[in-house]
Amino acid sequence: MKTSGEDHGTSQRGQHAIEVAGLTIGYEYPKPILENINFRVAYGEIFMVLGGSGCGKTTLLRHLIGLLHPWEGDILIKGKSIVRVSEADKRRVMRSFGVLYQSGALFGSLSVGKNIALPLEEHTTLSEEMIEAVVEDKLALVGLNGFENYMPSELSGGMRKRVGLARAMALNPDVLFFDEPSAGLDPVSAAQLDRLILNIRKELGTTMVIVTHELDSIFAIADRVIMLDKHKHGITAEGDPGTLRCRPPDPWVKEFMTRSGLERKPC
């Protein structure tokens, strides 16, 4: 049984880890990809962004992590805007969260340990010994004890994703963002990654925002989802994925949530 995000972060109860208000985004003005969208993510929640190709999932993620600036609206991370602030203040907020990119985004010329150490070397004054200790701790958390000296090319796809996750967690963020974490993984590796995500949330209470289209992961770990619709330029459904499967608000949501035979599961 998944634990609701509302059960985590009791000292922050009544607030939200992420708030998106009146957000309008796009590339070619005045044609928006998403228009006037609003949602909130609770502390400790595993929140997923779903939708078909071209609906704006990745574009939304790039705005949430501060890589792109919205046309309108605001994004608050732990109560602090990353839109209506100076670049220096924005960078300070961005250091409070981690990102696992679809490819893992590891530097192929650096060892596993050096990859994880990069954010620590850039953003902290920790000694070399302390950085090594943090690297060991993060690798242990993702089940890769003793892999510090391996090169990314020596690892499987699933292991590279876990190294990317260890690096995303190097600065102990309260919020983690994932871009298609199961992409390119076989079903066993994808399920292992799902279990790792659940364990990190259980142990640390970390808030997770995951862009994905993998139904197995959606039903295995998501507390709540939003579904984006490229024709409506916005959110077409929001809620518990099981509820959306059993009581879909429109035919497209039903089709998305019941492919691969999942419609045969009892509601």
Please describe what this structure looks like.
The structure is a single chain. This protein has 267 residues and is α/β, with parallel strands linked by helices. The strands form 2 sheets. It has a 6-stranded mixed beta sheet with strand order 6-7-8-3-9-10. A 4-stranded antiparallel beta sheet has the order 2-1-4-5, with helices on one face. A hairpin with a 4-residue loop joins strand 9 and strand 10 (234-239). The longest helix has 18 residues, at 187-204. The chain is globular. Helix 3 runs parallel beside helix 5 (157-168) and helix 6 packs parallel to helix 7 (215-221). The chain is 34% helix and 21% strand. The protein is built from 9 helices and 10 strands.
Can you give the mean pLDDT?
Answer: 90
Give the overall shape. Answer: globular
Which regions are unreliable across 5 or more consecutive residues at pLDDT < 50? 1-14
Describe the oligomeric state of these chains in a short phrase. Answer: single chain
